[in-house]
Design goal:
Shape: globular
Number of helices: 12
Structural class: alpha+beta
Largest sheet: 5 strands, antiparallel
Strand order of the largest sheet: 8-7-6-5-9
CATH topology of the largest domain: Hypothetical protein af1432
Order of helices and strands: EEEHEHHHHHHHHHHHEEEEE
Number of strands: 9
CATH superfamily of the largest domain: Hypothetical protein af1432
Helix content: 40-55%
Oligomer: single chain
Radius of gyration: 22 Å
CATH architecture of the largest domain: Orthogonal Bundle
Strand content: 5-15%
Distance between the termini: 12 Å
């Protein structure tokens, strides 16, 4: 299969993977030939790219950390929780509470429904954990999602990445479930904020920015009221925008840049490790996902940026563990040759090299003029002079 931007699609091209809409419903199934109408719909819905059948790459199976079935279930579960929360907020604003008190309490009749939804969050996190049990590396390629599906998909991707980091840190299963549950709901406080503020792409006013930053407190208060027994998970929503240098929000907590247990008696002055892991996973998904205003970055670019952020914004030790599971040349990613006889040629990574992870097996598909050529497969562990870089697509 081959990942290509929707702008390059032509009628007759066959999908290699099923596409889902923002509600988790099937939009187009795998092996469906695309029509002009389908392509126009994909553009309208904001899909940046799709996976297609391709004669020269049909043997390349781009791995999925979590199956589509579990992703759809997770999507539906997070959406249900957000729906219950939104209903509570709407009713509160309708008169049962003052909308400005930010208690996030909501009417009591929704309490049992909230409890059931939170249990479903834990159950789906357990499903995700089961699928990740044998995985040691991230996929390295962002999941394809439409632009109007950022909220729910972001929550799932942050949870998946955080669990992978937690595994690398040898966290217990119970802690991984709490961590994943917290990440699923880390942005629930945004439901209390006017939608046009956090979806706006231009510069916010000081008041609007202050209002946006309030989502951490509002989300935490809502979760504390509705799910009081899950203290650590609730604090992910509260602290995921704190910084190691103490310049984050909402409380200006500091970090130690280590994962080891805090020895100070005044542990309340420090960011909880759960929130520090969530912060790393949050930044990773923002950098690796396609957005209307900013395309996704290559793994090398992500690694560079996150190294720069470590120590001041992000916990340095946790970033190092994260980088150890981020492949620089994941299977399926586009590559371009920088030198030698094939300079300017483009293709994809078809297999990883366990002994030399920075020297994968590649397959060249296009020449320097971007014309399709007969596939050329190269094992870079035997081609020491060839240098490549990752690109959006071949």
């Amino acid at each position: 299969m081959l990942r290509v931007s929707v702008q390059r699609l032509r009628p007759g091209t066959m999908l290699a993977r099923t596409l889902y809409d923002a509600k988790g419903n099937v939009l187009l199934r795998a092996n469906v030939p695309l029509t002009a109408g389908y392509i126009e719909s994909l553009v309208h819905r904001g899909f940046p790219a799709v996976y297609i059948r391709d004669r020269d790459t049909d043997d390349v199976d781009i791995p999925e950390l979590v199956s589509q079935q579990v992703r759809v279930e997770a999507h539906a579960t997070v959406q249900q929780v957000f729906t219950v929360a939104r209903q509570a907020i709407t009713e509160a604003i309708g008169g049962k509470e003052k909308p400005t008190d930010h208690k996030g309490n909501g009417p009591s009749e929704n309490g049992q429904k909230s409890k059931e939804q939170f249990q479903q969050i834990e159950n789906i996190v357990k499903e995700i954990l089961r699928e990740l049990v044998s995985s040691n590396m991230l996929s390295g390629i962002a999941e394809i999602r439409s632009y109007d599906d950022r909220t729910f998909s972001h929550s799932i991707e942050v949870a998946v990445t955080a669990i992978m980091i937690g595994k690398r840190l040898y966290m217990s299963e119970s802690d991984l479930i709490k961590l994943g549950s917290g990440c699923m709901l880390h942005d629930i406080g945004k439901l209390f904020i006017e939608q046009d503020i956090y979806k706006r792409e231009d510069v916010l006013s000081t008041q609007e920015y202050r209002r946006l930053r309030g989502h951490t407190v509002l989300g935490y208060k809502f979760l504390r009221n509705r799910n009081p027994n899950n203290v650590l998970a609730n604090h992910v929503a509260f602290q995921h925008h704190e910084r190691q240098d103490g310049k984050g929000y909402p409380r200006g907590l500091r970090g130690t840049n280590t994962y080891r247990r805090r020895r100070s008696r005044k542990t309340e002055q420090y960011i909880l490790p759960f929130a520090e892991i969530a912060a790393v996973a949050d930044v990773h998904d923002m950098l690796s996902s396609d957005r209307p205003e900013k395309p996704s970055l290559a793994p090398q670019q992500i690694a560079t940026i996150m190294r720069e952020m470590s120590g001041t914004l992000l916990n340095a030790e946790i970033v190092q563990h994260f980088l150890s599971i981020l492949p620089m040349f994941p299977v399926g990613i586009g590559i371009a040759v920088q030198n030698g006889f094939y300079r300017g040629y483009r293709g994809i990574v078809v297999r990883s090299n366990r002994r030399y992870p920075d020297r994968p097996i590649i397959r060249l598909l296009y020449d320097e003029a971007h014309e399709r050529v007969a596939p050329v497969e190269l094992d870079l562990s035997y081609e020491a002079d060839i240098q490549i870089i990752t690109i959006q697509e071949p």
